[in-house]
Structure to design on (422 residues):
């Protein structure tokens, strides 16, 4: 909104200072500050309203230290996160940008699924909430939409690097024309539609999903969506559920997501800037720089929410927040074609997910082989997901959260290093 307003003022009235809104970095900073203000200042009012309406968390008895004290803590605090993301994005981003539109749709879509789950738990007094199959259907739905838009929309393109032979041709034209100021382009002026992505630790770090269908010859690109869209659905579902599972102790999901979001914001900035993309020898994706504004709002929302969600939590985000932030991370990574970096960057989400899967299948295996009592007495983890295992082992949840944060920062650094480590 403000981008268009100040652009108009700059163009027609030469309004002093209006031109600064053309800079992504400036608008991202404003989005971050606005998000923090919304989540920290207005968030308190939302928490008081939730408490007044007695929208409190129902705690299942898991035998964890300090668990009973959490009963009645206001939940559905994800509404704070959603507001702190959506409002600054609408104010400071270019709304006509296809990536921004898709991020907003994904945020609202998954937020609504989470809200419905929380509503059933709180108001219908059903501890199970929305049935898992309906959650998955909703996640598949947004994954299908995201995959289809990224594959078919004409504005979702990349620009390939100019080859050495093409650069030599420019140099030759420069020589015969005598124009010493002719700039040799690093990237083609013609954008192309492709489903290439970034693959870590490989010298030529681009992978085309269509290569999986190479046996189809010339039709491989035409039918590449058969591979691409299911992969998008899988990633959105997995990361969304990973964030949901991680949201088990005070501050863990919000803080980890802020670390991941900061890293993705950096990757979006360098991927949407020809200078940095050329220096790092990575894919240049036009118009993705605008995503930095959205991600700044996302990080501000997570950090601002931590003000109230850090131990001892005054509010829980609930599925309203956790499903949304996981989906946002997944869709954002796909948009900047860094989704294959998710296992590294979202390593905390990954191990939390894997710990639950291993716990379930190991229990079933032991039950089948040795019987129910043996399986109960010899679980792989004391409790899953992994953060509860450490709680059962005697670690205070604040220490668990801080150590997970440190691991998250290390994984974020490793993710950025992969841009050159190949």
């Amino acid at each position: 909104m403000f981008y268009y307003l100040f652009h108009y003022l700059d163009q027609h009235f030469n309004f002093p200072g209006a031109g600064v809104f053309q800079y992504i970095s400036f608008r991202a900073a404003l989005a971050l500050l606005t998000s923090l203000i919304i989540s920290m200042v207005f968030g308190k009012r939302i928490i008081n309203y939730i408490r007044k309406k007695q929208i409190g968390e129902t705690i299942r008895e898991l035998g964890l230290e300090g668990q009973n004290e959490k009963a009645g803590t206001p939940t559905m605090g994800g509404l704070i996160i959603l507001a702190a993301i959506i409002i600054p994005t609408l104010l400071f981003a270019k709304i006509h940008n296809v990536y921004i539109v898709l991020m907003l749709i994904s945020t609202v879509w998954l937020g609504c699924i989470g809200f419905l789950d929380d509503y059933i738990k709180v108001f219908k007094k059903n501890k199970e909430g929305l049935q898992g199959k309906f959650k998955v259907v909703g996640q598949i739905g947004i994954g299908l939409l995201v995959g289809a838009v990224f594959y078919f929309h004409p504005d979702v393109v990349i620009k390939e690097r100019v080859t050495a032979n093409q650069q030599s041709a420019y140099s030759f034209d420069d020589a015969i024309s005598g124009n010493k100021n002719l700039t040799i382009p690093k990237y083609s002026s013609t954008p192309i539609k492709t489903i290439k992505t970034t693959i870590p630790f490989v010298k030529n770090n681009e992978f085309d999903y269509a290569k999986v269908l190479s046996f189809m010859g010339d039709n491989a690109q035409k039918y590449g969506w058969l591979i691409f869209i299911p992969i998008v659905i899988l990633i959105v579902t997995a990361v969304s559920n990973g964030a949901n599972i991680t949201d088990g102790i005070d501050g863990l999901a919000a803080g980890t997501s802020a670390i991941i979001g900061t890293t993705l914001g950096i990757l979006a900035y360098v991927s949407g800037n020809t200078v940095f993309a050329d220096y790092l020898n990575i894919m240049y994706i036009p118009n993705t720089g605008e995503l930095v504004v959205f991600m700044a709002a996302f990080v501000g929302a997570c950090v601002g929410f931590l003000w109230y969600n850090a131990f001892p939590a005054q509010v829980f985000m609930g599925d309203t927040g956790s499903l949304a932030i996981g989906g946002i991370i997944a869709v954002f990574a796909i948009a900047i074609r860094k989704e294959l970096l998710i296992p590294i960057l979202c390593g905390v989400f990954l191990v939390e997910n894997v710990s639950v899967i291993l716990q379930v299948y190991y229990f079933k295996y032991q039950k089948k082989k040795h019987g129910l009592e043996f399986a109960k007495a010899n679980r792989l983890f004391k409790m899953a997901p992994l953060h509860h295992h450490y709680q059962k082992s005697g670690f205070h949840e604040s220490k668990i959260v801080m150590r997970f944060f440190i691991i998250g920062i290390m994984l974020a650094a490793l993710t950025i290093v992969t841009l050159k480590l190949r």
